[in-house]
Amino acid sequence: MDATLGAGGHARLLLEAIQPGGRLLAIDRDPAAVAGGRIQLSGFEPPATVVRGDFGDLDHIARSHGFAQVDAVLFDLGVSSMQLDDPARGFSFRGEGPLDMRMDPDNPVTAAQLANQLPERELAGLIRRLGEERWAARIAGFIVKRRPLRTTRDLAAAVEAAVPRAAWPRDIHPATRTFQALRMSVNDELGSLGNGLKSALSILTPGGRMAAISFHSLEDRTVKTFFIAESKDCVCPPQQPVCTCAHRASLRIVTRRPVLPDEEEIRANPRARSARLRVAERI
Ligand SMILES: C[S@@+](CC[C@H](N)C(=O)[O-])C[C@H]1O[C@@H](n2cnc3c(N)ncnc32)[C@H](O)[C@@H]1O
C-alpha cells in the first residue's frame, strides 16, 4: 500500500517491484493526486487500486477495497511538489496565492481561517508547537495586527516584518516554520499520522513492513515513538513494579537509526535534504 500517492513516483516503483501479479492500493486525500494516479498507474495487470481518502483510516479503506491484509505500507509524509508548486493551493510563500493549504479541498478549515480567526494566544501556541518557531508570539501579534490576511504573500510579509532581520534563519525563508505550522494544523497532520500508523499495524501480515519518510522532527518523533512503543512487551511507566498493561510487542524495528539521503540524492533532489526514513516489521 502506498498511503501517500502524490505524483505516483513511489507507487510506480512499488508496482514494478511486485510484478508479476502483485496488487497495489494507493491512497491520497488530494483529488488531483488521485486523478493523476488513476491515469499513471493504469497500465499494470492487475491495475493499481487508487482511492481518495485519509490514511488515518487506511485499514477501513483497505478492507473495503479487497485488501484484508497487506505486505507493506509506505508513508511519504507532508506535501507533494505538485501541491507546493501550485500557487492556487496556497502552500508556499513563493508566489502569490490564496491562503488555503488544504490537501483535501473538502476540508472545512483553511489557513486563512486560522490566521484570521484564532485568538492571538492560540495562534502563537500553534506556531510555536507545530512550527517549533521561537518568534511565535511576535509573529502571532503581527498577524493579528494585519488582519484580514488573504494571500500567502500577506502571511509571508507579516512574518518577515515580525522577525528581526538579524534573526532571519540562514538556510530557510523566515516564514517557513509559520507556513509549516498552519499547514500541519489545517490538515491535522500529526493526528492523521498517529491514526495511520495504528491502522497500518492492524492490517500488516506477519513479516510485512511499514516504512515512513518524515520531513521534520515532530513527524519523525511520532513515527519513532510509535515504533519503540510497539516493539516493547510492556509499556507501563518505569516506576510501576508490576506490569498491568498486558501490551505485547507487535513490531521489530528494522532501522535503529533513521536512513538519511546521501549527498548525491540531495544534489539530484534538494527537497529530500531533511527526509528521514524509518522501517519496522510486523512480528
Ligand atoms: C510527499 S507527497 C508523496 C509523494 C509520492 N510519494 C510520490 O512519489 O510522488 C505526500 C502526499 O500525501 C498526501 N497526504 C498527506 N497526508 C495524507 C493523509 N492523511 N491521507 C492521505 N493522503 C495524505 C498529500 O496529499 C500528498 O499528495
Distance between the termini: 18 Å
The oligomerization state is single chain
Q: What is the CATH architecture assignment of the largest domain?
A: 3-Layer(aba) Sandwich
Helix percentage range = 40-55%
Protein model, in words:
It is globular and about 55 Å long. With 283 residues, the protein is of the alpha/beta class. The protein has helices at 9-17, 31-40, 58-64, 81-84, 111-117, 120-131, 136-145, 152-162, 176-186, 189-203, 217-230, 263-268; strands spanning 25-28, 49-52, 70-76, 204-214, 251-253, 276-282. The strands form two sheets. The protein has a four-stranded mixed beta sheet with strand order 3-4-6-5. It has a two-stranded parallel ribbon with strand order 1-2. The protein binds S-adenosylmethionine (SAM). Residues 4, 6-10, 27-30, 33, 54-56, 76, 78-80, 103, 192 line the site of S-adenosylmethionine (SAM).
What's the arrangement of secondary structure elements?
Blueprint: H1 9-17, E1 25-28, H2 31-40, E2 49-52, H3 58-64, E3 70-76, H4 81-84, H5 111-117, H6 120-131, H7 136-145, H8 152-162, H9 176-186, H10 189-203, E4 204-214, H11 217-230, E5 251-253, H12 263-268, E6 276-282
Parallel strand pairs: 1-2, 3-4
Antiparallel strand pairs: 4-6, 5-6
Brief summary:
The protein is of the alpha/beta class and 283 residues long. The protein has 12 helices and 6 strands.
